[in-house]
Amino acid sequence: MKSDIAKLVSNGFFREALSLYSKLYSSSSILDHKFAFPFLLKASAKLNSPLQGQMLHTHLIKTGFHSDIYSATALADMYMKLHLLSHALKVFEEIPHRNLPSLNVTISGFSQNGYLEEALGAFKKVVLGKLRPNSVTIASVLPACASVELGGQVHCWATKLGVESDIYVATAMVTMYSNCGELVSAKKVFDRILNKNVVSYNAFISGILQNGVPHLVFDAFKDLLESSDEVPNSVTLVLILSACSKLLYIRFGRQIHGLLVKIEINFDAMVGTALVDMYSKCGSWHWAYDIFTELRGSRNLVTWNSMIAGLMLNGQSDIAVELFQQLESEGLVPDSATWNTMISGFSQLGLGFEAYKFFHKMQSTGVVASLKSITSLLRACSACSALQSGKEIHGHTIRINISTDEFISTALIDMYMKCSHSYLAKRVFCQFQIKPKDPAFWNAMISGYGRNGEYQSAFEIFNQMQEEKVPPNSATLVSILSVCSHTGEVDRGWQLFKMINRDYGLNPTSEHFGCMVDLLGRSGRIKEAQELIHEMPEASISVFASLLGACRNHLDSALGEEMAKRLSELEPQDPTPFVILSNIYAVQGRWGDVERVREMMNDRGLKKLPGCSLIRVT
Predict the structure, then answer these.
(1) How far apart are CA 285 and CA 269, in angstroms?
(2) Distance, C-alpha 286 to centroid of its chain
(3) Could you give the CA distance from residue 185 to residue 173 in angstroms, rounded to a whole number?
(4) Which of 105, 295, 334, 500 is the right S-S partner for 338, CB 3.0 to 4.6 Å?
(5) Neighbour tally for 485: CB within 10 Å
(6) Cβ contact 124:137 at 8 Å
(7) What is the pLDDT of residue 178?
(8) What is the DSSP letter of 194?
């Protein structure tokens, strides 16, 4: 009977193996071979069934096989895989004569359950004891190496033991180096694997994605297809689809979709969800929806969340709401990710009222909003100056004790500033005795004061930022240069502009140049502004527009005509530059030039946009 059970488990028929055992046990048939239990325990772990595992544990004690080293090791392994660590350790401690496999199970179990120090401690016991580590020991401890220094030491052990080229060890090393951000080392190990299998390819491709270089994924995938006898499995194709999503490679994504059909890979929820995500992020929500429909009967909550997020991303909020309402028809309940997707989606689409409505609905169900949802809601309040709603969300953050979170505080400052309540923003800022080192936190204050015309306060925050040795980023310097532009402080502006590269090691962007051009133009130093534009690698439309605005203010018609022509080359359908130039000539009383500019507009098919007035009724 042992061979029947072993065969069922080996072929993935876990329920059938346990059912056969149950029939034999209930009919009082005697399982006379202790080696049947390790297979049964493995089946329980695969089915994630603690109850079945504990029943088998009881049967082990009744039959007296609990003291058998093989059965006890399998029992400890099962408890580790079911994340019942205390049960596993109790079984391990009761093993009278522990061998290397039982110690390997302990090391692997600690690693899988996140007890990294304990895994390393167990490995140290093996190394310092009488037992000699083997390839399984090394492969089991590598996931516990959270630093490249520790991983390197275990790598040395692998070399010393002669197991470095073992496929399981090498694959574990690829994963370890990738997790530590050492992709070059991971590639060196991967390249030395002689007989690569699909698991080792998956480990390397996953590492590439994890380290933010998705374009390299396709070379590894090509190597798998051309240089190996291995066939990509569903994990491989999910990883490749993820790379297509990140790079918006819809053409390659469609080829992967075709390959899925060609090699007849099981179209399960995992693969289907990856396709839905890829098509949605590439802007083809119709195709994503077709896949979602095909998955009927096998889709899970992750699939639903992915489809709803994809619809929101593509501006299809009405269909997203319909899906949200249909979700429960498949016996599923919206989780925090579902609610947060709806709230964030509405916020990003500028539909603040709908976002706030879903936030209240979520609260009534007892689901806790994520930080992302709350920051999205605050951004929506900022966009429509909804002060009262913003205050309510602030109160909610205080009640759930996240108001001092760095990201939440930054969003609160931004919201209060955009609602023209800078004193409330200052209160949030001052709640920190030790201010965060993230420049975004300070930028919200500086740009907010600038937006509200409190320029001296903006300079004070910038000075405080420098005193507390928080390095400004590009956005900080754009904000403070903009303040200089509005206050007309040319000398301070020049000083800050020169500090961008000299003191902060940043390259001035078109926005920095634009602020300086605007500052010089407002101050009547148009010649200097023109010279600064010539220093730019590539002047943007906004820079030329700033200089044209300065020409209008100071009635410089010659330079104004040059800027208008430059802008018309960059944006030929925009009549605004010629309208501004015409106004300059009109103020100067040069009516002949006004007529000439109008003829130029007519020749280009441009018409002055009619003005309009809006009245908001509340």
Answers:
(1) 18
(2) 24
(3) 9
(4) 334
(5) 23
(6) no
(7) 96
(8) S
Residue 119 in tokens: 């895994």
Spatial contact of 337 and 309, defined as CB atoms under 8 Å apart? no
**C-alpha distances in Å from residue 90, one per residue of 74, 80, 340:** 13, 11, 41
CA distance to 62, 354, 381, 398, 578, per residue, from 350 (Å) = 66, 9, 9, 25, 33
Q: Which two tokens stand for residue 605?
A: 């098919």
- Write a three-state SS string for 417-464: HHCCCHHHHHHHHHCCCCCCCCHHHHHHHHHHHHHCCCHHHHHHHHHH
Both tokens of residue 73? 């090791």
CB 582 within 8 A of CB 592: no
- Output the six-digit token pair for 225: 């297809």
Query: Quick check: 440 pLDDT over 90?
Result: yes
Rounded Cα–Cα distance for residues 582 and 595 (Å): 8
Residue 477's CB is within 10 A of a number of other CB atoms, namely 25
Q: What letter represents residue 180's amino acid?
A: C
What distance in Å separates the CA atoms of residue 294 and residue 309, rounded to the nearest whole number?
18
Cβ atoms of residues 323 and 308 within 8 Å: yes
> What H or E segment, with its residue span, contains residue 181?
none
List pLDDT tens digits, range 16-57.
888 888 877 665 555 545 668 888 889 898 999 999 989 989
